[in-house]
Design brief:
Strand order of the largest sheet of chain B: 8-11-7-2-17-16
Strand content of chain B: 5-15%
Structural class of chain B: alpha+beta
Radius of gyration of chain B: 38 Å
Distance between the termini of chain B: 82 Å
Number of domains of chain B: 4
Number of strands of chain B: 19
Number of domains of chain A: 2
Helix content of chain B: 40-55%
Order of helices and strands of chain A: HEEHHEEEEEEEEEEEHEEHEEH
Shape of chain B: elongated
Largest sheet of chain A: 5 strands, antiparallel
Helix content of chain A: 25-40%
Strand order of the largest sheet of chain A: 2-11-10-6-7
Largest sheet of chain B: 6 strands, antiparallel
Oligomer: heterodimer
Largest interface: A-B, 64 and 68 residues
Radius of gyration of chain A: 29 Å
Distance between the termini of chain A: 36 Å
Structural class of chain A: alpha+beta
């Protein structure tokens, strides 16, 4: 077994590709006939025997033409991959149980298009894409993210059967890829707001409590704050208006691991916290996160939410 | 092996289905020529049904109704051909499956099965025809099949792009085809016993002759064989191509005498009296053993033998086009000492038929002394009395010869030959009917003599004690032009003849000659490429008597070489510089003689600044050129700037010239 392992190590160059972009040289491309290719060769053998048996000179020619076609197809399948440049792109964080999409930037320097490239992580479903001549394309390769933390999808399997489907050429580019996976959120009621007031807190800014007036809606406003009644009065001409509130800024929400039920274990606690973060953000509340050994000061907004979820993802 | 991605089942795209239906039509349609009508109709209906289902985008029929239909169809084919094996039944089954497979086509793998079936069906067309049009049709079909594979694996692209790519792939495959075709060790003959129906439907002379049998053959413009003489060739009137010799007569039909002679016979003795002619003949297959050598052969190809009646026979029936080299003489003395049994056969007549003819023969026997005089009397009768040469003779009664000689007096070669031999035998002169071909036509394009089925002919031979067997052609007495000019000259204008034989217009004849010369080259070099031809070609290429090991080595290395070239052509990346880059590089190269060489990484503006530092007098033009190039390459340059950039190169050249001249002639 050790010998096979070492052979595979040598053949497939297991391990990360540190140099970017990864260029698919012929040393990195493997090619084998597909099942259809094997069927094709069997069909050709039977045809050749038929041609010999019936003395069909043109039959010989046909068989040899098709065999030549197979050989040429092998070269073209190889060409579809060779000299392709590949570099990792960004990965959007996902919640555990979702599918992460790893963006990979592929650059085709050829003057011919590359077609039907399939990219996949091990035996998960992959994506198929074409790259027009002398352009770049981005492939979002899906990878299921079952658990929180950093997700290492492993090496990419980049394969193609174009043009004739008789050969499968593939390569194992292995850039350092990692995606962040947040804990799977669980919806539970939020803990009570604490009345603690902080010094230096500005007042009057976008609180939760007292209605102060209307303003024109901006894109990042929650639809729940739209003043539907006001809008309905003159729907043709009036832009969407937002109810503004003030006050309550002094009230903060502490999402503390100590407040979570402990019976489900650490992961459930983290899931509950993740659910709280999402809910608190939706309420436009100011919230802080308190984990053993880590405390994130209360805040609000997407950046704060991301920081909190990251902390949860990487906790422990 | 490392773990490969699991094979996910790929659904067949709806838009790819018309391609597969086109494959089914292209590969199955030509078979309609010879399949029973009901199979063709059924196949057409199933394919139309499938097209309709595609157009409506509805569900395919369920498995059970389909299985029932297929089973019924297979049973029908079995009933039609009385077997499911053999060539015709096998082809019918393949066509049938080709029509039904699209009915249950859901995944890409199913589609691949259809394409593979299509490849196989392509081969079966060659059972029926290997002509140039068939070859072209099949090349087109192969392109369609390759295009379908590209469509299946490459997704949606413009149809023209797909076909262009398929054409490119096939063009690159052609060198392999040529190399392997030439060098693949040819094995002749079947690997196992062929089905009974393998060679049905080949036409040619038969081993018997009854009134009208030759007539059918003469209606055909098909080519019987082609001859290439190595020197000059005999006169047309001497071109008698000997086929089966007919000895047995039953009052209606002349037959080859199949029964063996009671005494062992010596091989025939043929003494050549004059010039000999060497030639190679390419015979179309006729499923018989005779070889149609020029009367009479003195040297035979190795795998043939000469019969006691001088016709040459191959070892096996001719089921494929074959080449034979002969040497013949037209001036001969043959079998002066004939076997008495053979002579007895040449005198035998069934008793009591054709009494009037017998009576006539008897008067001659009494009147003349020598057989030659008797023969001349018969020929004189044909020539001087009112006998006519026509391909539409009236029907003859029970006493065939009497009726012809004394009533109808109209006939063609088989009537005259038959009547003449009857008269001779009745008069006691050993005589027999010889069938074969007479004449032929030189194709000026390639110099081959073409002999058609319409040149089929029957003549007679009589045996004289001092001269052996001599040829007598009674038709020549009636219609000399038949022998000297060919059948179209001998016939009255109203007689039916194949359109191709009766061609008056010059350009049409030239066109036909060209077409047939092309066909002949095709037959000689493509279809007739057999072990012998292969040896010939290989020795011309410098490979004398190669064994299979050598041949395999040459084959493999040539294929490897071709693959290398194809790979290089495919992977070679042409210079992908834009016109702007090319113009800019040209500008920069002009400065090389001054010692200013642009580094690979140097940007245009940096380079122009360096030029300005080193050669202030060139600063302006360099800055302008660099500005244009930067706009064109990195910004939104206008097309006119490319011209400006090129002009900069020109003015730079002028400036440099000025510098050198001014340096040479200091003022």
């Amino acid at each position: 077994m050790a010998v096979i392992q070492r052979f595979k190590q040598w053949l497939f160059r297991l391990g990360y590709d540190e140099q970017l972009p990864i260029v698919l040289t012929q040393r990195r491309i493997f090619i084998l006939p597909t099942r259809s290719g094997l069927l094709f060769s069997v069909v050709l053998c039977v045809m050749l025997i038929g041609a010999i048996n019936y003395n069909l000179s043109l039959g010989h020619a046909l068989v040899f033409l098709l065999a030549g076609l197979g050989l040429v197809a092998m070269v073209h399948t190889f060409r579809n991959l060779v000299a392709l440049r590949l570099a990792p792109g960004r990965v959007e964080p996902v919640f555990a149980g979702e599918v992460a999409h790893f963006n990979v930037i592929l650059e085709n320097e050829h003057r011919q298009a590359r077609r039907a490239l399939e990219l996949a992580f091990s035996d998960h479903d992959g994506v198929t894409l074409d790259i027009p001549p002398s352009t770049q394309a981005t492939a979002a390769i899906p990878c299921p993210a079952p658990v929180r933390g950093y997700l290492d999808p492993g090496r990419i399997t980049l394969s193609t059967r174009y043009p004739l489907g008789l050969f499968n050429a593939w390569s194992y580019p292995h850039p350092r890829l990692s995606g962040l996976v947040y804990p799977r959120p669980v919806e539970t009621p939020l803990p009570p707001f604490s009345a603690a007031s902080y010094l230096g807190q500005r007042h009057g800014d976008s609180g939760q409590e007292d209605f102060t007036g209307l303003r024109i809606r901006q894109l990042n406003d929650s639809p729940r704050h739209i003043a539907w009644k006001a809008v309905a009065r003159d729907i043709e001409n009036r832009p969407l208006l937002i109810k503004q509130f003030a006050g309550g800024a002094a009230e903060e929400l502490w999402l503390d691991m100590a407040l979570t039920p402990t019976e489900g274990g650490l992961e459930t606690q983290l899931s509950v916290l993740a659910g709280w973060v999402i809910a608190a953000e939706q309420l436009h509340a100011r919230y802080g996160l308190r984990l053993p050994g880590l405390e994130l000061a209360p805040g609000q907004g997407d950046a704060h939410r991301t920081t909190c979820l990251e902390a949860l993802a990487l906790y422990g | 092996m490392a773990k490969r991605p699991a094979k996910h089942v790929v659904e067949l795209e709806h838009a790819a289905i018309p391609w597969l239906l086109a494959v089914a039509v292209a590969t199955a349609a030509p078979h309609a020529q010879h399949l029973p009508l009901w199979i063709s109709l059924l196949v057409a209906c199933v394919l139309l049904w499938r097209s309709w289902l595609w157009q409506q985008n509805t569900h395919l029929p369920g498995r059970w109704p389909l299985a029932l239909l297929v089973m019924t169809g297979v049973a029908g084919i079995g009933w039609q051909f009385h077997t499911l094996f053999g060539r015709d039944a096998g082809v019918a089954l393949l066509v049938f499956f080709m029509a039904f497979k699209p009915m249950e086509m859901k995944t890409r793998r199913d589609a691949m099965v259809v394409v593979m079936l299509g490849f196989f069906l392509l081969l079966t067309h060659y059972f029926y025809s290997q002509s140039i049009p068939t070859g072209l049709w099949l090349l087109a079909s192969t392109t369609l099949l390759a295009a379908t594979l590209i469509r299946l694996h490459g997704g949606n692209q413009p149809v023209s792009t797909i076909f262009r790519y398929a054409g490119l792939l096939l063009a690159q495959a052609i060198p392999f085809m040529v190399i392997v075709f030439l060098l693949f060790p040819r094995i002749s003959g079947p690997l196992w016993g062929l089905p009974q129906d393998a060679y049905s439907g080949l036409t040619g002379l038969s081993d018997k002759m009854s009134p009208g049998s030759l007539n059918n053959l003469i209606q055909s413009g098909a080519i019987a064989f082609r001859v290439q003489f190595s020197g000059d060739l005999p006169e047309k009137s001497q071109l008698y191509w000997r086929g089966p010799v007919l000895n047995d007569y039953d009052g209606q039909t002349w037959r080859v005498n199949a029964s063996a002679l009671p005494r062992p016979i010596q091989p025939p003795t043929i003494e050549s009296q004059g010039k000999t002619y060497s030639y190679v003949m390419t015979l179309e297959p006729h499923n018989q053993r005779w070889l149609l050598a020029l009367d009479l052969p003195v040297a035979l190809p190795s795998d043939s033998a000469i019969a006691p009646t001088f016709e040459t026979r191959a070892k096996d029936p001719l089921v494929s086009r074959a080449r034979y080299a002969f040497t013949s003489t037209i001036d001969y003395v043959a079998n002066r000492h004939e076997n008495p049994d053979q002579l007895r056969r040449a005198l035998h007549l069934p008793p009591e038929i054709n009494p009037r003819s017998r009576e006539l023969a008897n008067t001659w026997r009494l009147k003349f002394e020598s057989p030659e005089q008797i023969s001349n009397a018969a020929l004189l009768m044909f020539r001087q009395e009112a006998y006519f040469y026509t391909l539409r003779p009236p029907l003859l009664g029970q006493q065939v010869i009497d009726d012809f000689l004394f009533n109808t007096r109209r006939g063609f070669c088989e009537h005259f030959a038959s009547a003449y031999v009857f008269l001779m035998r009745a008069a006691g002169v050993p005589a027999r009917v010889v069938t074969g071909y007479q004449g032929g036509e030189i194709n000026p394009v390639d110099g081959y003599l073409t002999v058609r089925q319409s040149d089929a002919h029957a003549w007679a031979e009589i045996w004289l004690a001092d001269k052996g067997w001599i040829r007598v052609d009674p038709t020549a007495a009636v219609a000399p032009s038949r022998i000297e000019l060919g059948i179209e000259a001998a016939l009255p204008a109203g007689d039916p003849l194949p359109a191709l034989v009766r061609i008056d217009t010059d350009w049409l004849r030239r066109l036909r000659n060209r077409w047939e010369a092309g066909n002949n080259a095709w037959n000689q070099w493509v279809l007739g490429y057999n072990p012998a031809r292969q040896r010939e070609v290989l020795s011309r290429l410098g490979l004398h008597e190669p064994d299979w090991l050598n041949m395999t080595a040459v084959l493999a290395s040539l294929c490897g070489f071709a693959l290398l070239i194809v790979t290089a052509l495919t992977l070679y990346r042409r210079n992908t510089l834009t016109p702007a880059q090319r113009a800019w590089h040209r500008f920069c190269r002009k400065l090389n003689p001054l010692g200013i060489v642009r580094a690979e990484w140097e940007g245009p503006l940096a380079f122009s600044k360096r030029v300005a530092r080193e050669r202030p007098e060139l600063a302006r033009v360099a800055a302008e050129a660099a500005g244009h190039f930067a706009d064109l390459h990195y910004g939104t340059g206008q097309p006119v700037q490319l011209h400006r950039l090129r002009e900069c190169t020109r003015s730079l050249t002028d400036l440099l010239k000025l510098r050198t001249t001014s340096r040479r002639n200091p003022v």
